[in-house]
Amino acid sequence: MKPLQMVDLQRQYQKIKPEMDAAIQAVIDSAAFVKGAQVEQFARNLEAYTGAKHVIPVANGTEALQIALMALGLRPGDEVITPTFTFIATAEVVALLGLTPVVVDVEWGTMNMSVEAVRKAITPRTKAIVPVHLFGQCADMEPLLNLAREHHLYVVEDTAQAIGARYTFSDGRTAQAGTMGEIGCTSFFPSKNLGCYGDGGALFTNDDTLAESIRVIANHGMKVRYHHDMIGVNSRLDTIQAAILDTKLPHLDEYIAARQAAADYYDRAFAGNEHILTPERAAYSTHVFHQYTLRLVGVDRDQVRARLTEAKVPAMIYYPIPLHLQKAYQDPRYKAGDFPVAEKLAACVLSLPMHTELDDEQLAYITQQVISAVNA
Ligand SMILES: *Cc1c(COP(=O)(O)O)cnc(C)c1O
Description:
The protein is an alpha/beta fold and about 375 residues long. It has 13 helices and 14 strands. The model has no long low-confidence stretch (mean pLDDT about 95).
């Protein structure tokens, strides 16, 4: 059996090596390392794939989130609602900009932001909601968008883990993750579902004015060269990374299908085990399985993980500490016990290897080892 990894990027590369090497070589030959033609070409192709009117590539997903909040003109003191069970980037940029992060609890089954919790967290100072489509499945966007409309709030989707996931509205209309709110932000970190060979990110928007602001902010606040109308940042996607992404984009649907097939295997193998709760599949969204995350009940998660490590099955805890319990984000408004679902998840989640190259032999071994580790 091939050794197990959380993510196997080597074998994925080997399958597309000739076209990938040629794409990278073309950039080196052109020496257009910054703002080369491949950047715009990739952006146009990703617009076609996602259905977003504008895709604006930037340096990474965290900066995409920061630029989004800057483009919306949020001011210090404005409150931004985000789930407490997520990767830190979401709240980090809120805090960096002097905005006030307001965290809310998540749902036990989907592990995504609870819309009811958002409703209760809205105050006269609330300006934006940042749902995270965690692990590859959309948060419940329709009630969230309705709530935002009712209270005149912006919605910025963090779709770093969910590129290609599709949400279905009650009237049957569908939309891709990242294209439903005012702005969507994604990451092309190597292990993400569409990953480059370094750092990368992008913003999605259907709004022409916002697209223009985003482009200006990402380019030092500069529309006319050396004329700075606003304070911006320097956030660019390198041409080599754009060429890599443009080479991988036509494969994204098969990559997603491979992840879904692995997830289906896991679901079947764990069905009915009293200690293992598999990820809930919401009726309103497809799941692109950036992570396959179990909730372990009635067993010691850390012991299970230790047994898996012994058996050479990697498993990770995404995420062990909710935002409101992180040292840097301590806030007199929050204390342990305030967000019971997130705290319970932090103590019981375990993510299994999930990537495009898992074969049946590996899946059989992983599932056998997980089952014997929880039953030990
Ligand atoms: C990866 C990730 C980010 C940040 O992306 P970077 O490109 O690493 O800056 C933001 N939010 C979530 C939910 C992520 O998973």
